[in-house]
Amino acid sequence: MARRKLVYEGKAKILYEGPEPGTLVQYFKDDATAFNAEKKDVIDGKGVLNNRLSEFFMTGLQRIGVPTHFIKRLNMREQLIRQVEIVPLEVIVRNFAAGTMAQRLGLEEGTALPRPIVEFSYKDDSLGDPLVPEEYIIAFGWATQQDLDDIVALALRVNDFMAGVMHGVGIKLVDFKIEVGRVWENDFMRLIVADEISPDSCRLWDIETDRKLDKDVFRRDLGDLNDAYTEVARRLGVLPKSG
Ligand code: C5P
Hints:
By secondary structure, this protein is α+β, with helices and mostly antiparallel strands. The chain has two domains: 6-82, Phosphorylase Kinase, domain 1; 85-224, ATP-grasp fold, B domain (D-amino Acid Aminotransferase, Chain A, domain 1). It contains six helices and 14 strands. The protein has helices at residues 46-63, 99-105, 134-139, 145-168, 216-219, 225-235, and strands spanning 6-9, 13-17, 23-28, 31-34, 39-42, 70-73, 78-82, 85-86, 89-96, 112-122, 131-132, 171-185, 188-194, 202-206. The strands form three sheets. Strands 8, 9, 10, 11, 12, 13 and 14 form a seven-stranded antiparallel β-sheet that branches. A five-stranded antiparallel β-sheet has the order 1-2-3-7-6. Strand 10 and strand 11 (131-132) form a beta hairpin. The protein starts with 5 loop residues before the first strand and ends in an 8-residue tail after the last helix. The model has no long low-confidence stretch (mean pLDDT 97). Cytidine-5'-monophosphate binds next to strand 9, helix 2, strand 12 and strand 14.
């Protein structure tokens, strides 16, 4: 294949120019990073699992009418996506306290929240993606109030879908992060789900045992990350149940 133009290289993915204008190829690497890349490793096969899992979640969302950037999977590690203008926010939805929220508020991890809570971090690695209030987002022009209303509605739809799918296979959706991008269609701007949805960007706990099946396995040295992601993929039927 002819060498493609690299558009962007991130910690876990690479974006190349796509075959048509307005498309990109998203390549999933095996690199795992945590704590703003202070902890790094290469986990053989992680990229393959995340490519399949992100395809599974994005196509499921599209089936229920939630727009995403996903067009089609190209091969084991690559998918064709729509080019978007990324909103510089990490949109986090939490159903149970964990991670930074549990630390900040002194809550025990796993405490059920009164309702799903949506929060925003400003996407900037050099600052460690700081949590920001809506007031900052609007004042600095990263998004408008209308965008934020739309993003919250989108994030809650993703939450309902993901929590339901996960519950069906005995997994609790503790929290997750999405990124959102702008596309223009007939002069109208639309916000769609972009980036990836995978166990790298979710907290997934077994309903019975609270066993962690997500990137906390890597962050906290809890075992083999591939085993955890493979378990998620098998339960969802993305990989054969055995073998
Ligand atoms: O670390 P924290 O508790 O704020 O993370 C909340 C959720 O967002 C977790 O599921 C985590 O994996 C995800 N996240 C992410 N990328 C970041 C920060 C958080 O995917 N840069």
